[in-house]
Amino acid sequence: MANLKALRARIASVKSTRKITQAMKMVAAAKLRRAQQQAEAARPYAERMERMLASLGGAVAGSPDAPRMLVGSGRDQVHLLIVVTGERGLAGAFNTNAGRFARNRIRELEAKGKTVKVITVGRKGATYLRRDFGSRFVEEVSYAQVKRLSFEQADAVAAKVTAMLEAGEFDVCSLIYNRFHSVISQIPAEQQLIPAKVPAPSGDEAAPAASSDGALYEFEPGEEALLEQLLPKNLSIQVYRALLESAAGFYGAQMNAMDNATRNAGDMINKLTLSYNRTRQANITTELIEIISGASAV
Q1: A single Gene Ontology molecular function, please (predicted)?
Q2: Can you give the pTM of this predicted structure?
Q3: I need a surface site. Which of 94, 129, 197, 206 has the fewest CB within 10 A?
Q4: What are the structural domains of the chain?
């Protein structure tokens, strides 16, 4: 009977766990809808801003007065990586994939003799990288207490990066995050922020800037003045986009992980119930045999 008691306790425990995973799946699904809408709404603006600055910057990239955020320091020795991950776990391999991508990138840069500095956004990324690369950390940013991400959080990270750039603390800045592809697919990606990527110069510096669709634009004030205003804003926008993409990917990964956990719990309950019934039947059969044997002996 002790085995039956243990099986009943195990079945009750797994059922309680299944209720928790079902609730977490429903919460993640509800949050995913809003996060996905935000991420998809931010993409066109961020991509258009990036293309416009690339086209605009191509005309002034070779100028000695070009903004530092556009052309960088002119060196390629110190790399700053902004690693964006989730604040919580129970999301499958979501955080591990981004952390592994960042780890491999750090090792690749250091193998080339580069100096690497790291800013982590999200507690899981900091936890994953701290053991091997804690000495490279510049700052650990966490928004665990923030219910809904806003542009202010991204602007704060961008302000830190801008201050480091003005102080000459790095040469190249890149963003690493999980790009939201679909509910079941989040792809680790790297995006270079500083220096901004610009098309190769055409050789005609006097020509107006051309957009990706072939239209020609004349800017007033000049390109340098516009870039001084737009580049910091673009930095915040790209960080904000990464935060939204990461948030949508996290909830998608968590929903799938909790769905799998719920299914596994159901399978385990079925197996434990079958084992419980078999054990109980075996005990009943044993008791009947003992009674019949005793009656036959009398």
Answers
A1: proton-transporting ATP synthase activity, rotational mechanism
A2: 0.81
A3: 206
A4: 43-196+219-254 (3.40.1380.10)
